[in-house]
Amino acid sequence: MRQRTLLQPAVLRPGALAGFAGAVLIGAYLIAVAMLTSHGQASVAGYFSSVAATAVGPAAPAGSAGVLLGAAIHLAVGVAWGIGYAAVAQRTPQVRARPLVSGTVFGIVVMLAMQLVEVAANVYRLPDTFALANTLIAHVAFFGIPVAYIVTRQLDGAA
User: Fold this and answer.
1) Euclidean distance between CA atoms 89 and 87, whole angstroms
2) I need a surface site. Which of 3, 79, 125, 136 has the fewest CB within 10 A?
3) Can you list the alpha helix ranges (DSSP code H) found in 38-128?
4) Helix, strand, coil percent values for the chain (each to nearest 5)
5) What number of CA atoms fall less than 13 Å from residue 110's CA on the CB side?
6) 48 vs 43: CA distance, rounded Å
7) Threshold 0.70, pTM exceeds
């Protein structure tokens, strides 16, 4: 009988690489948009502090410790999503065959799941049209599609 493992080593590297790249891209996009739309009131530190506060709640550390914790959480979540996508893509050739479609669907799934995290953390605010469109663009164009293309390239190159 063949033993099934949850994650195969061939999935970890492509998934982690793709998730890290996606996390950097989506973070850069969201920070840039926040800074542009707030007339310079938003900051990189503020973005990552809010990530920490969402994940940890009132116990989130203040100052640079909170910023570092938020950045670490942001990257870890991106890597986890990337590994999850790579695990699905490795087992499902159709996912790798159409990375644009798969990445778009994946971005929407990630967006909805992360909205649920905000609901669970009690920090969810009903978005206006701009915020909803911005969140959708961020998760599809700057996370889902890049992750799909990186994973596909890595898995197909390894085959």
Assistant:
1) 6
2) 3
3) 44-56, 63-91, 93-97, 99-120
4) 80, 0, 20
5) 32
6) 9
7) yes
